[in-house]
Amino acid sequence: MGSTSEFNRRDLVKRAAALGIVAVPAMSVLSACASGGGGAEDKVEKGTKSAKNPLAVNESAGLDVVIFDGGFGDKYAKDAQALYVKAFPKADGKVKLSSTQKIQSTLQPRFNGGNPPDLVDNSGAEQMDFGTLVAKDQLTDLTPLLDAPSVDDPNKKVRDTLRPGVVEMGQFGGKETWILYYAYTVYGVWYSRSNLQKLDAEYPETWDDMLALCAKAKKKGVAGWTYPGKYPYYLPFSLYPFIAKIGGEEVLKKIDNLEPNAWKDPAVKAAFEAYYELYRKGYVLKGSPGLDHLQSQKAWAEGKALFIPNGSWVENESAKQIAKNPHFDLAVGAPSSLSSSDKMPYGTIWASGGEPYIVPRKARNAEGGMELLRIMLSKQSAQNFIKQVSSLTSLNGGTEGLKLPPGLASAQAALQKAGQNIVNPRLQDWYVALQKERIGVGALGEMMAGRMTPDEAITKIQKYADETRDDSSVKKYKR
Predict the structure, then answer these.
(1) Is residue 1 assigned to a domain?
(2) Domain match, 455 and 334 both
(3) 452 neighbors 460 (Cβ within 8 angstroms)
(4) Domain count, the chain
(5) Which of 31, 94, 116, 156 is most buried, judging by how many CB atoms fall within 10 Å of its CB?
(6) Rounded Cα gap, residues 10 and 339, in angstroms
(7) Are 168 and 179 found together in one domain?
(8) What is the CATH number of the domain that holds 97?
(9) If you write DSSP's letter for every residue of 108-127 in order, what string do you get?
(10) Distance CA 25, CA 141 (A)
(11) How far is 81 from 75, CA to CA, in rounded Å?
(12) pLDDT tens per residue, the chain (479 residues)?
């Protein structure tokens, strides 16, 4: 994946979504958008609606697409672009697809000028803030795409081919869907089966077993855990579903809804104390607080630590290091059970859409942008993506006949085991600054470095959540 610059990966949180890490300056930047130039008079005329063209795309109109150039690259999008041109040969030579790691700084002038692209993969460290985009009415409602017939089965709407929760993730309190998450990420505790076998162990399904395994590893000179201390908002990838497992999904809903004292729930305290024990007993790789995501993944891939909280993109992002150990056998584990009184069963996991695509409201060819997304959600395009980047897509299924790499096969198995016990916290989508800087860097990072106790971290996070709830300039969402 190139340089180890923090801006070069899927950056900071996936993939968008994922941990919706997004550049906060987007809020002030986009405030000018609502009054920017452009408008309906600049839009291309619609084409003729038909069975082959359900969105009434203008078959000879140009199409302007901007892709985030991170861990997934842009080849999968270019391959879908070729299918678009095949469907609309009169558009040949008029479809422009460009990629960048700097989404916000590249597109900010275009949004402000009223001439944004027709389709944007809004991901990476410079991801534009979705709450701001929605609040400023900068996005096109994707309902026509969702209600259009799917490419593979005209009797099925696109929305009926998507994994559970994907449509809801693109909604912000209303019926409109503003974002289509293309990738599908499984979050959890990632590990090497072969490294555990060296310790005559399997993945620990209880926290007592987790601590016992970490103690055993420590005696062999191996750390139990590592994490990117520079970006401690990775910790929630396993911590949030752990909280839900202990206290029920309702705890995460209260947190998402910024309810008073939501963070003081006993399940939060129990989860924080469990993670703090990893630090207190010396089970965290020394130096982890100073590592970025690539450095922590490298140490883990080299066997210096058994476990790392991460998302399923880690298989692609760490491919070179993992390849040095041909028997690595990558896998993901759901949060271990804290006790028999946990409210949700073992296997409860966080999985959600990633790689968020948007069609700007002032796009000249919004229908073309949605049509390209429809093509990307075909089985052909989805399988192409899976094979190229070792990630699932939001298309439900799509893996039939494919030989999945170990990590992706494990993620698929984890989803099957979880069944209905899949959680999807929204805090990172709705309140980026709160999640990233305050909860992540300001509290979780401090706690795991031993500079703050669990009680102190909880008190600080609750204060941050209350301040966000009481800030009238921040639009609030509920689930």
Answers:
(1) no
(2) yes
(3) yes
(4) 2
(5) 116
(6) 35
(7) yes
(8) 3.40.190.10
(9) HHHHHTT---SEEE--STTP
(10) 24
(11) 10
(12) 333 333 233 444 433 333 333 333 334 444 444 433 444 458 999 999 999 999 999 999 999 999 998 878 899 999 999 999 999 999 999 999 999 999 999 999 999 999 999 999 999 878 898 888 988 899 999 999 999 999 999 999 999 999 988 999 999 878 999 999 999 999 999 999 999 999 999 999 999 999 999 999 999 999 999 999 999 999 999 999 999 999 999 999 999 999 999 999 999 999 999 999 999 999 999 999 999 999 999 999 999 999 999 999 899 889 999 999 989 999 999 999 999 999 999 999 999 998 999 999 999 999 999 999 999 999 999 999 999 988 899 999 888 889 999 999 999 999 999 999 999 999 988 888 899 889 999 999 999 999 999 999 999 999 999 999 999 988 888 88
Identify the three-state secondary structure at position 468.
helix
Strand partners, 64: 96
Residue 337 DSSP class: B
For residue 430, list its beta bridge partners: none
Count CB atoms within 10 A of the CB of residue 257.
17
Place of tokens 């001439």: 115
Residue-range definition of the domain harbouring residue 91? 6-185+352-411
Burial 13-27 (b: 16+ CB within 10 A, else e): bbbbbbbbbbbeebb
State the pTM of this model: 0.83
Q: Find tokens 């997934």 and name the residue.
A: 72
